Amino acid sequence: MKESPTDDIKIGVITASWAEMHNISCDYHKSTTSTNDLAKDDAFNGLDAIQLYVTDEQTQGRGRGDHTWTSPVAGSSLLSSWSFQSAVTPSPYITSLIGLGLFNAARATWPFLNWNLKAPNDLYIDDKKIAGLLVETVTQGNQHRIIVGLGLNVFAHPKLPIATDLFAEMSKGKFPGVMGSDWIKFLDRLLFEICALIPEANLEPDETLQASMLAVFNMHPKLTSKYSDFKTLKEDLWR
Known about the structure:
Layout: H1 11-21, E1 25-29, H2 35-42, E2 50-55, E3 77-86, H3 94-109, E4 115-118, E5 122-125, E6 128-140, E7 143-153, H4 166-172, H5 180-197, H6 207-217, H7 230-237
Parallel strand pairs: 1-2
Antiparallel strand pairs: 2-3, 3-7, 4-5, 5-6, 6-7
């Protein structure tokens, strides 16, 4: 097989280095079953307010419901779980709000790509899925941890008609490729977006957030009909 110039780049290693630079506790594994399972097992073991788990390969990666998340090449995708301490019980909206935060981070970093969200929280470029979220909450007494499982295809993607990856999309548009500095900017913005949500995770979205969610979810090209209002959108968010 012809070697790619990205073969020696491991997204998990780079992301763990980013966390170290920001003094964020990070548990890195070359391979594991599921980063969300690691985060849940660790939830009340005296963690910092933010704890990151990353791996180059998941053998039992999970999505919402009975879906799975696979990466075709070890190290080619962001396979991560972000565990946040929370003083409040999250509302059912938190999953989609974090999806909106992921969208904002991606669009801010690579604004020339056609990012959009499919309800409740799948990230797409045009009509191809590039990332998925699995948000879980664990509680012990009055302590809560919000665990954000994020899988994002960077240099490769599963051989499925609906899938894509960041490198492939950059190549289509003859853009400069996935730059290391851009990856750092993306992680910085993603952390900012999620941290802004955590303190008020128990609240319903205000009018500004509702309008933002409605606009972004209406961007999805495969919608059979646009959401007319937030009440209509909410029915899909809570499925």
